[in-house]
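Running this now, will post back.
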Amino acid sequence: MKPDSRTIRLACAALALSAAPWLAAQDSFAEFEKKVTEFTLDNGMKFLIVERHNAPVVSFYTYADVGSVQEVKGITGMAHMFEHMAFKGTRKVGTKNWPEEKSALDHVDKAFLALRAERDKGDKASKEKLAELNKAFEAAQEGAGRFVVPNELGKLIDSAGGRGLNASTASDKTDYFYSLPSNAVELWFYLESERFLNPVLREFYKEAGVVREERRMRTDSNPIGKMIEEFLAVAYKAHPYGEPGIGHMSDLMNFTRPDAEAFFNQHYMASSLTCVLAGDIDPKRARALAEAYFGRLPKRPRPEPVRTAEPKQDVEKRVLLKAQSQPWVLIGYHKPAATHPDGPVYDAIGSLLSDGRSSRLYRRLVTEKKIVAGAGGFPDFPGEKYPGLFFFYAAANPGKTNAEVETAMYGEIDDLKTNLVSQEELDGVKRRARSSIINSLSSNTSIGMQLAKFQVLTGDWRNVFKYLDEINKVTPEDVRRVARATFVETNRTVGYIEMAKPGAGN
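Update: finished.
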């Protein structure tokens, strides 16, 4: 997972630079609100319809309140795996004969379980039997593959003029999105409802192989990816934020299609889904189509939030990775969830330290001291729904050591604890954020991302704008107070990547 250096909340922070611009902004937000229609189906599924009739296109954004944080040992990586499976089709899309395919898929599962059982014997496993079982497993997959219409979901969308078909998985969410011409709106309602009503996890074990290769590339063979995984595992000893979103390799090799079906049934209910449709669309027609198609999803209670809470950290933790890489320093401090009342203060700190070339870390460490090639810091890593980390990173310049970089980073962090930030710097946060929000509201897809996120995390999409009032209240004293409470030695985890010596086996 790629960390998000700016949260959506920061993108919306502080449009009010003065009284006149703020009044203008209020007027524009009032106009924006008039274009939004919201409704919730009887099964709990939430819809936001944003009318933007400037082009005959509609963008569709589905936010599933399901992420890797819902996983447990044995099925790590399953949220990401299901994201892949959501493109494989349904009982009606992607198959030549569903009843026969279903029987063939059951046969594949049995063949895999037999192979896994023998493989689990380790040194006692029979090589001959393993070869025989592997051959039977491959034959079963080939048999099931005869019923597959490859990528039919994507082809249907492409043929209707669709663009941008994609999805992503994070700690707290999985999202699915693409755009269609406005005369093809009903196609989205049909396809999207089908893949959450009747998903077929075809080619599951082949796709698990694809994900394993993805892990090898993103984590096992990538020093930064490997360090992030080790860093989070050290920073978190209880909460699932410490587990790798891509999954442990052993889980990717051993979980099954029934495991994925169980994960889907437990977490992908209608009330876990929020859809934002932005573009050239009629809200009344959208509601009728939503009732007709998504109303088919059964009403089921949502699972409880994650119960496990990360205990207070009272000792500094450190991790060292030696690899063929330039030196890197990572520093993380535990902090409350993004919805905490001090969320705006953390956002302001992130902007002050890391937002652009005028930020403190870039100006002082990159430009003036020339000690690092790049540096940054941002809140809410790896997620926002539960308490996360304020995360800092820096890449040392040639001739500079990680210890020197770490000391320089603390100089900037500790300065916030000692000296009050100037009002001029806080106003700079607002100027930069104004540009960000204007840009973010110019795209149908980005509108969907923002509104869905605020709807799910805060309970009301309007908070994307109300948050401006909160960031406007941040004072220099707030910045110092939060910095003093958070940036404490016993509350931090430090990671080093150092160059391995030739022949050291790294």
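The chain has two domains: 8-19+312-499, 43-95+148-296. More later if anyone needs it.
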